[in-house]
Design a protein that fits this description.
This protein is α/β, with parallel strands linked by helices and 376 residues long. The chain contains eleven helices and 13 strands. The strands form four sheets. It has a seven-stranded mixed beta sheet with strand order 1-9-8-5-4-2-3, sandwiched between helices. Strand 6 and strand 7 form a beta hairpin. The longest helix has 31 residues. The radius of gyration is 21 Å and the shape is globular. The chain starts with a helix and ends with a helix. The structure holds pyridoxal-5'-phosphate. The site of pyridoxal-5'-phosphate has 15 residues, from helix 4 and helix 5.
Length: 376
Amino acid sequence: MKEETMDPIPMVDLQAELNLLRNPILEMITEVLDSGNYVLGKKGETLEKLVADYVGAKHALGVANGTDALVLALKALDIGSGDEVITTPFTFFATAEAIAEVGARPVFIDIEADTYNLDPSKIEAAITPKTKAIIVVHLYGKAANMKEILSLARKYNLRIIEDACQAIGTEFEGKRVGAIGDIGCFSFFPSKNLGAFGDAGLVTTNQKTLHDTMLKLRNHGSDKKYHHSLIGMNSRLDEMQAAILLVKLYYLDIFLHKRKEVARRYTESLPEFLRKPNVSSSREHTFHQYCIELDERDKLAAELDKNHIASGVYYPKPLHVQEAFRYLNYKKGDFPIAERAASRILALPIYPMMTYEQQDYIISTIKKFLEGEKDK
Ligand SMILES: *Cc1c(COP(=O)(O)O)cnc(C)c1O
């Protein structure tokens, strides 16, 4: 009877986290309200210091959201009209949107079938005299192959932007992502592994000149009030979100640990024939999403829904076939591995406060479905 009385299981349970952290968060918010300082201030500066330390980068700057982080990174590297940027077609739209936003051209290459990250062996063929940079995405929290990508970047003099929006805390060969390339970009959208209660983002870099440029760019290109040396934007971190993030950052490692534990239990319990996330010690996975792959993806999603279990498809349509990018003249069939993943992938609920009882119910529902399919 347990099945019938269980509450619906969402993809992420932000309410459960809020219940745990409500008191410290309310205290922090009150401090911000009383401070009279609401955009760029003490909380933001503290967050920048702590996240820089956490990621292992020399500098961090709070910005308005993850998309702006990417735009600021491209602008700081002086990438714009006439330039090409290599990236993956299998990511959230914002990765390539940022490239187009600064006037450059996104150049897609296919992904690794087992990690869903861009395949370094396909980079060289995509490089032209116009190529300026590569945006690497650590999709779902899984580290991309930074070693290969860095060595190609060095060989061809390309800059590396890491889209680490889904991967705060993920390690590549012992170094945290976001501190490996030239600039790291983070999103603190509420559902991310470190999430605010609104929009927020951050950039990291080890290069002081890039830090100094982004410091200006995020605030209308100004060094001091009403003196503008660059054309920038308004992309500042607000103090309320910074304060909330300070509380949540304190719990980040515990929460990531729990995500890995939930992932381990899924992988152990689900049948061998399903494609499950690739886990390796050199390229860590922090499980922003736990995705399986199967032909009957849509049928399983419907069955889960019928049993009040959420699931998600990240992403159903690769970027090279998105309407907004039709001017790039890609067509269906150009990136078969990304297209196959888009048609088969299914993300299961995963969040730090998930109970084993909830997870066991999800697992047994999936197993029942698969048994039923086998008998057909
Ligand atoms: C969330 C996300 C972004 C954009 O972040 P926002 O804060 O929503 O602007 C960019 N890239 C990836 C891979 C993301 O997951």
